[in-house]
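Annex B.
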Amino acid sequence: MADEIDLEKQRIRDEVRARRAAMGDAERVAARDGITAQLVSLVEAREARSVSCYLPVASEPDTSGFLGWARDRGLDVLLPSAREDGLLDWIRPSWEGMVQGAHGIPEPLGAFLSPMAVGEVDLMIVPACAVDRTGVRLGWGRGYFDKSLGSMERRPPVFAVVHEADFVDSLPSDLHDVPVTGVVTPSRIEYLDDPAEE
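5-formyltetrahydrofolate cyclo-ligase: predicted structure tokens.
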């Protein structure tokens, strides 16, 4: 059964990668602008003063516009740094440049904080391959965010960012998968795990 779940997860990842790779420049810009608007709306609606987010790599939904807005507004932002043990440290960026991190993933210059630091933010914004309507989040297979979310004593609201086609009715899941509070796409915000907030 576990093998079947893993195979189905990989099939979905391959499908999403192919779909994102096929996006044209104009479509990417429109998606980035939509995501920026939705994330700004989410942060303002929740009156968040501190957030964790991510720097987009490859074809991940582009948060660069939102991060520029957050920097200009003086929000306290934490960005992830992958560790060898599979957890995430967090960086409070100085906004003064980038360095190469684990797996060749760019990381910002700034102050390093422990894996527990993210428990203090008002809102977590995480990448995803896909999300379903029950809050199941499918990542890319390394498990960094699942381990981090699963190890937290206090978990802020968690919103996964995906393109429209990656928000689906159902996804395969394992026991270690931690449901997200909501999903953000270029055109909407939907609460999935916290009906009182709708």
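Residues 82 and 88 are 5 Å apart (CA to CA). Residues 194-198 have pLDDT under 50 and may be disordered. Further annotation is deferred to the next reporting cycle.
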